[in-house]
Amino acid sequence: MLDANFRLAADVWEQRSRRAVSEKKEKAEREKLTNVQDKSRTLDENLHELDAKMQVLQEEHHALENTLAKAFTYASWESKIKCIKQVRAGLHADWDLKEEERPFAKTFSSPPDMSALANLSDSDDDEGSSEGSDGSSSGGAEGAASEGGAEALVVPVGEDVGVPAEKEAEQGGAYD
Q1: Segment 141-158, tens digit of pLDDT
Q2: For position 43, what pLDDT does the model report?
Q3: CB within 8 A of 67, min separation 6: which ones?
Q4: Taking phi first (over 0 means left), then psi (-120 to 50 degrees means alpha), and beta for anything else, what does residue 164 get?
Q5: Is 165 left (phi over 0), alpha (psi -120 to 50) or beta?
Q6: C-alpha to C-alpha distance for 7 and 1, rounded to whole angstroms
Q7: What pairs with residue 130 in β-bridges?
Q8: CA 134 to chain CA centroid, nearest Å
Q9: What pLDDT digit, counting tens, does each position of 118-132 carry?
Q10: pLDDT by residue (tens digit) across 79-138?
Q11: Under a CB-based contact definition with an 8 Å cutoff, are residues 128 and 144 in contact?
């Protein structure tokens, strides 16, 4: 009888030990799962924030592209060259900074100085829009592109920005 009670007590103790071990394992797995879910939730929130910031950056990028395109359509060669040099200088300086210090990386909070393009003369506006023999107008971007205006936009970074010889001759050699 004593032997049977001892076996029964040993069985009960063994079951409790197994149950305690399995409960500890389940608790550890639940904690791991909770941690993973919390991290996943945090990553999802960060992803949504980054998506929102990316959307803002894309909108500002498109706005800046539109502004530059409009300005370049009607700008003089001097203004185009000055603006390109300012943008390049800003981008080169930007590469030497840490990411949090980059003005161009922070939603274009410090765009290049556009005052040269804002002070356009009236004679520059007439250059891009000349009326053809059939009465149609080739104005704006088409006129600038046909006169070589696209050349100023396609100069590789690091190259010296120069004026094409035919443009220099047309304007009386003002770029000596």
Answers
A1: 444 444 444 444 444 555
A2: 95
A3: 114
A4: beta
A5: alpha
A6: 10
A7: 138
A8: 44
A9: 555 444 444 444 444
A10: 778 777 777 766 655 455 555 555 544 444 455 555 555 555 444 444 444 444 444 444
A11: yes
In the block, which residue shows the tokens 């696209």?
A: 150
SS (H, E, C) the chain: CHHHHHHHHHHHHHHHHHHHHHHHHHHHHHHHHHHHHHHHHHHHHHHHHHHHHHHHHHHHHHHHHHHHHHHHHHCCHHHHHHHHHHHHHHHHHHHCCCHHHCCCCCCCCCCCCCHHHHCCCHHHHHHCCEECCCCCEECHHHHHHHCCHHHHHCCCCCCCCCCCHHHHHHCCCCCC
What pTM, to 2 d.p., does this model score?
0.34
**Separation of first and last alpha carbons in the chain:** 118
Pick the closest to residue 70 from 60, 80, 78 (CA basis): 80
The rounded distance, in Å, linking the Cα atoms of 74 and 91 is 24
Cα Rg for the chain, rounded, in angstroms?
Answer: 35
